[in-house]
Every structure is written in structure tokens, then in C-alpha cells.
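Board notes (copied after class):
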Amino acid sequence: MRKQRTINWWKWAFIVLLAIVLIGGGTILSKAVAPTPQPELTRTTAPSDTSVMVELNRRQVNALSANYLNKFLKGQKVKYHFIVGKRYATLVGDTKFMGVKIRFSLNFIPEKTKQGNVLLRAKGLAVGRLNLPLKFVMGYIAKNYNIPKWVSIDAQKKTILLDLNRYSQHRSLKYSASEINMGTGHFKFLITVPINNN
């Protein structure tokens, strides 16, 4: 008759416990000596990477225009003004026709372009009692007036482009037109501080 072998439960319990201790200890040790994962660095928003929307009314636009033109035309004989009214943006200045000095008012309807510039479309001209064609007066202004480099006059199309993108070149701030509403007298411009990549 065969002898029945008895299972030593204490022996197997010790082996299982030892295995658990070894595996657990190894896992804890490997985690302890592993390099600490570095947090992912995210680019923070710096002051040089911000934009702000500025809303102006007619009075403020006219004050800015007058301030700019006074500085730009300082010391020059020919003076002109740019005024934003309720219906039109108006260029007021003096010209000569057949040796006679004449004051003119050139009315425009401003609109925002896709590039964030301002396009002025000529809609009317007042030159005293004379009836001069728009193209003539705009051509005269383009040739004889000191116009900023970022302003271009197209006498044939009867338009003036205020190229804010060109104006913003080599400046610390970038300017872009966002809304031009002559009806309400509200004008919105986006002013951006470019990202400093240095």
C-alpha cells in the first residue's frame, strides 16, 4: 500500500510570500532608481506676444490724425488735414490751378481690406466754384504733396490706400484695422506686440 504524501502548506505559503516580497521590492527599487520624468515645458504668454483691441470714436481718430500730420508736415509749406465726419472721411488742403490758390475738400468712404488696411474710395470733391475732375485733383496731390510712404494714391481708381502693414514695418507695434463703422462712429484696431525670437 502506497503512502499518501502530505502537502506542506507552510512551505508553499513561505515560497509565495517570498516571491511577493521579491517582486514587490524589485518594482519599488526600479521605480526609485529610474530617472524622474521631466514635466512638459509649455511656452508661457509673454508681454511681447500679446494683442489688444483698441476702439476709437471719431473725435479720437481725428485727434490721432492731427497729431500725426502735425509732426509729419512740420516745417513744410504745404499743409493738409484728414478729418473723419459722420458720413465721410475728408482730406482738406490747398492746391493751385492756373496760378490761383484753391482750397479743396475731397470726400472718401473708408473700408477695411482683408489685409487689415484701410482703403479710401473717393466719392466727392468740393473745390470752391470750380468743377475739377477727381482724377486731376488726386493726381495733383500724389505728385505735389508730401505723402507718407505707407499711403498710396491711385488717381485712376480714385482710391487712397492706408497701408497699415507697411506702416508697421520696423516698428515695435503692429497695427491692423478690424472694424470701420462710419454710421456709429466706431473704429476698432488690433495692436500687436510681435514675438521676440531673439
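Comment from the instructor: The two ends are 93 Å apart (CA to CA). DSSP finds four helices and nine strands in the chain.
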